[in-house]
């Protein structure tokens, strides 16, 4: 049994250009020009879409931040306090509570809680919402200071937490201590922001109008100041001239743009922490609602990244299939138009001059037969000498196609295909 031959691959028509015979025809000049204008507009649109897609890809490679509101909650609970003990009906009973040092029952104690979350954007679509981040992922480190007598309460009164690798994210923190005395608590939190926010020294910040910003933001603000003041050298655009305000910053009269980040590094300082004060009084019932503070933070805009990725990938795939289908249909219509034009030209030539048309057709068939048999007046050659002497012979519709085929064969032989 003969092995089954693989199915022949169907050739796909991709040429959407009209043949020269139609473009140069006076009958179709207006319609041909409209079609050519559409092709030119399509090329410009393709170029614009490619450029925009590249810009979106470049934007996605950089951190995309958004300013959001983080609400921090501070609250406390107490246990074993005097006001929590049940009143005794026996007047002879002792006021000293029963204390179990193993379980901690009866020992006055309190628990201080620190919680936080990012508030949702009002009227946000459900599909644009992203899972909420844990509170501990929003801060780099935290220090809690307890203001109480270390002699009476020898427990650790300064608690420090730092986020490190392998630490599970948490929704909040709880500090447990024993005691019944009022305690003042100070909470200092250092935010985790992308890109990192830094304080700008007043010597530089007063010039560019920035107090706290990322390194890239400071360089951009300084560049805007340079453009507004016209400090860029007119001849060498890489050189920046220092005015009276920037001369102490640069340390010289002119500097290259590549040296600016290095010169302004000494004007960066760590960002100030968020400081919250809380008073914990175990002798009275804790408030029913937690105290809340709102803080502006910069976080990754995952929603915008998701939408941009959808535009870049999802929409591109859907539209690519539709555009490919439309291109195939256009190529088929162009091929059909070319065939119809050839038929129309054939019939029009016969209708206008039947005798001359038949004579020309017979000569063409005779030359084809001579080429096949390798005999006749041309002795097997494809062209007759009398035809080569006439210039109009080289302006026939088939000449352009023959030249293109021959040039293609020559280039293929040159590259070894």
Automatic annotation (TrEMBL):
SUPFAM superfamilies: SWIB/MDM2 domain. InterPro entries: SWIB_domain, SWIB_MDM2_dom_sf, SWIB_MDM2_domain. Residues 193-270 form the DM2 domain. PROSITE patterns: SWIB_MDM2. Pfam families: SWIB (PF02201). PANTHER family: SWI/SNF-RELATED MATRIX-ASSOCIATED ACTIN-DEPENDENT REGULATOR OF CHROMATIN SUBFAMILY D (PTHR13844). This is DM2 domain-containing protein.
């Amino acid at each position: 049994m003969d092995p089954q031959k693989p199915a022949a691959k169907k050739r796909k028509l991709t040429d959407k250009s009209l043949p020269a015979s139609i473009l140069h025809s006076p009958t179709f000049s207006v319609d041909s020009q409209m079609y050519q204008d559409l092709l030119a507009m399509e090329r410009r649109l393709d170029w614009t879409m490619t450029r925009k897609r590249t810009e979106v890809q470049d934007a996605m490679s950089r951190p995309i931040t958004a300013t959001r509101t983080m609400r921090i909650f501070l609250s406390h609970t107490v246990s074993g306090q005097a006001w929590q003990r049940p009143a005794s009906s026996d007047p002879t009973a002792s006021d000293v509570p029963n204390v179990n040092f193993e379980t901690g029952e009866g020992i006055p104690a309190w628990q201080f809680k620190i919680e936080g979350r990012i508030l949702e954007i009002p009227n946000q679509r459900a599909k644009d919402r992203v899972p909420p981040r844990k509170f501990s992922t929003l801060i780099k480190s935290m220090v809690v200071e307890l203001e109480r007598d270390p002699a009476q309460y020898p427990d650790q009164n300064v608690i420090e937490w730092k986020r490190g690798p392998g630490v599970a994210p948490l929704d909040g923190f709880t500090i447990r201590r024993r005691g019944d005395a009022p305690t003042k608590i100070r909470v200092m939190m250092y935010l985790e922001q992308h890109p990192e926010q830094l304080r700008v020294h007043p010597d530089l910040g007063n010039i560019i109008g920035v107090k706290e910003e990322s390194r890239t933001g400071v360089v951009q603000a300084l560049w805007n100041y340079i453009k507004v003041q016209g400090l860029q050298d007119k001849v060498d655009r890489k050189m920046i001239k220092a005015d009276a305000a920037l001369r102490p910053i640069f340390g010289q009269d002119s500097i290259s743009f590549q040296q600016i980040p290095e010169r302004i590094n000494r004007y960066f300082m760590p960002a100030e922490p968020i400081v919250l004060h809380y008073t914990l009084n175990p002798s009275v019932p804790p408030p029913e609602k937690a105290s809340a503070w709102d803080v502006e933070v910069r976080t990754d805009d995952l929603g915008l990244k998701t939408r941009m990725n959808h535009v870049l990938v999802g929409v591109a795939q859907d539209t690519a299939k539709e555009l490919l289908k439309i291109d195939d249909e256009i190529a088929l219509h162009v091929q059909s138009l070319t065939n119809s034009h050839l038929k129309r030209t054939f019939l029009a030539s016969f209708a206008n001059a039947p005798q001359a048309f038949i004579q020309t057709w017979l000569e063409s068939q005779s030359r084809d037969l001579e080429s096949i048999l390798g005999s006749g007046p041309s002795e097997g050659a494809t062209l007759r000498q009398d035809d080569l002497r006439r210039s109009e012979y080289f302006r026939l519709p088939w000449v352009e196609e023959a030249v293109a085929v021959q040039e293609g064969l020559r280039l293929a032989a040159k590259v070894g295909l």
